[in-house]
Design brief:
A seven-stranded mixed beta sheet has the order 3-2-1-4-7-6-5, with helices on both faces. The protein contains nine helices and seven strands, in the order ααβββαβαβααββααα. The protein starts with a helix and ends with a helix. The chain has helices spanning 2-27, 38-53, 112-120, 136-140, 164-168, 179-189, 209-231, 241-251, 256-267, and strands at 62-66, 73-77, 90-94, 126-130, 161-162, 194-197, 201-206.
Length: 269
Amino acid sequence: MHTARFGRRAFLTGSLATLAVRRAAAQTPPRSAGPPDPVLLDDLVAANRILADQGVVDGYGHVSARHPTEPQRYFMSRSIAPELVTAADVMEYDLDSTPVDARGRISYLERFIHGEIYRARPDVKAIVHNHSPSVIPFGVSTAPLKPLYHMSAFLGGGVPVFDIKTAAGQATDMLVRTPALGRALAQTLGDRPVALMRGHGAVVVGDSLPRVVFRSVYTEVNARLQAQAMALSGPVTYLDDDEARLAEASVGGTVSRPWELWKKKALGR
């Protein structure tokens, strides 16, 4: 009997020890893949400021950039209003959206948007999540967001809408606060550059920070112009697929022009 109790005690002790080790391992932050390139860091700060300056984000919203040499890592600011972001606020994350070195800094609740899209889309190097006001109506109505002019040609091919209630199977607070919801959003986005989020905002992706900022700004502008055009009498003529493809190839190669202008204005304030 004594031997049985001893064996049971040893088993329980061993099980608790194993559980403790697993918990400790789960709480161990991932190792850094190295500091960001100074140019990338500067551009990430600038992207936050530009989007605020252009009215795409306000006190909410966030921008990230994939690590240039380690695709399993990305950089994003701590939880702070985009216009206030500095280099010291930037944190490194793995694709589980676990911070490498939090140092007491609070992360954005919806960081899983970024980690899961980077995981699903190897081509994506930068991501913006925003609550762009003119875009919101197109995520809650039957009117699809379509490219109205050449600057927003990247919207050609359709803009999917993510419905978090459908993804979660129940009512939520509308925030993508879990990896599962992040994966569902990434699935809705598919291979597109923009996805709307019903009753929430949008997610925009690109192969660089200048491009994702360009797309974010002109998605907002297109939504505003489209609403104005739809309010006029008569049908609206949108870019057809061929026009969108040709315009995207033409305008898409000039994103450095507005980027430099926006950057100078935003950082000079």
